[in-house]
Amino acid sequence: MITVHRTAALALGRTRPSLWALTTLFLGCNGGTPAAGSQPQAEVAEVGEVLPDDPAATPAPTPTAGNSQITPAREVSAPAHGYGDKIAWRGLDEGLAEAKTLGRPLMLLVHAPWCGRCSDLKPRFFDPALVQASERFVMVNLDQDDEPQALRYGPDGQYVPRVLFLDPQGKVDATLSNAARSQYKYFYLPQDDLVGVMQQALDHHASR
């Protein structure tokens, strides 16, 4: 009988390391050997530092096309002509239709490639404040030499550059002009407060 008990004890001694090996296999390796007398539950706590039922363990959902709350940028559909590549420029006909559909004011920039004052104004359209304001407008810029329809939008002449604001129905609002000028009222220099006039246009014509 003594021999039988001793044999059984040896068998159990050989079995315990195998149980720890299986535990390690299923739970992952944490770089150490279990100390004498330690329990499998302690190994579970070390490997699974954050339990699945812990609210902090649930990762934030990755934004997808279905659940993203980020408004996608409006696409550009007309040439920028160097007047800000982060602005969603439109052609004239498309812009007039979009303004009417969305109930937004339209900002119209008329320029010409040979015009030095036009080139001076270009950096103004890279101003982050102007770019941000432009997101609430339909933005159109026309090369007057290439697009003769621009000549229809010259309340006090066909000089360039000129910036005009149209209501959502496509009518020029003659009150929205450069307050610093008594003539050529739609002419702007880089230092003029174009963003301020944009805000006035929104106050007058943006849909509520």
Explained architecture:
The chain is an alpha/beta fold and 208 residues long. The chain has 2 domains: 2-57, no CATH class; 89-205, 3-Layer(aba) Sandwich (Glutaredoxin), CATH 3.40.30.10. Helices cover 34% and strands 9% of the residues. It has helices at residues 2-27, 40-47, 92-102, 116-121, 128-134, 194-205, and strands at 89-90, 106-111, 138-143, 162-166. It has a 4-stranded mixed beta sheet with strand order 1-3-2-4. Helix 1 (2-27) packs parallel to helix 2 and helix 5 (128-134) packs parallel to helix 6 (194-205). The radius of gyration is 35 Å and the shape is globular. The N and C termini lie far apart (96 Å). The model is unreliable at 1-71 (pLDDT under 50).
What's the helix and strand layout?
Elements: H1 2-27, H2 40-47, E1 89-90, H3 92-102, E2 106-111, H4 116-121, H5 128-134, E3 138-143, E4 162-166, H6 194-205
Parallel strand pairs: 1-3, 2-3
Antiparallel strand pairs: 2-4
Helix pairs in contact: 1-2, 5-6
